[in-house]
Amino acid sequence: MIGRNDVCWCGSKEKWKKCHFPDEGSQAHSQAQSNQERKNLKEEYFKKYKILLKNEEQINGIRESCRLSAKILDATCKLAKAGLTTLELNNFAHKMHLEAGAIPAPLHYGEPPFPKSICTSLNEVICHGIPDKTPLKDGDIVNIDVTCIYKGYYGDCSRMVAIGAISPEKQLVTDVSYDCLMKSIEILKPGIPLSKIGEVIEAHATSKGCSVVNQFVGHGVGVDFHENPQIPHNRNRITTLLVPGMTFTIEPMINAGVREAVIDPLDEWTARTRDGKASAQWEHTILITENGHEILTNWTR
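RE: above sequence
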């Protein structure tokens, strides 16, 4: 949460308590000024960074889509068990989308067009795994990634599932990737530079002997599938400040070995660890609010 003595998110360089801190007594007097400042900030961020700061209507739509994405994700993860194929998980999630009146965003996305409705990334697959007839087996870990389009808005999230007893290496990356996500979310509030996200993630991952993938990033989301800003999960020098109305994903991809990914030359999507060691990822969509943040994808671990 932003503190009373922190610099206000609006760029005034005043303390929050003297600028945008809620004050019922002066609320009516300052409303017009506050609205104008938000408009100016929205124009500035789009002009400088091509970042779309969402209005209340858009936020409500994104929030609704995120809730649906998390619901589909939780149900699909609950279904995952030994003997079930990743294609069966895909078909189940696809049906849930259609029943809810939603569209699975990954289907036919990109070039070449992604062929399925969700991503299922097994063991050494970092991301963008394509569901197929491969059955899950005891000892596997799988990341299930769901993005739905609902009433024109996007919600994006993913979770890990362990199938039976897993190796210490797989348990390590599963736990570290989750902790990296949650630790990076804890710091989110207006006024902090975007680079702090990657700093928190890489510091924790390396302290546990893991590496952070730097070939893929989190991203703005909500009105479109992939928006600005990009959210690197490794240390970086991006000085853009977080401000209210930003919606983006954090999805740290953590490897047990080297960080480098190798893209499958045949499907041009599946990214695997270069050394064949395990990888894991968890993902939330986040909203930056006036005094902190809100996790929009309320899946449960």
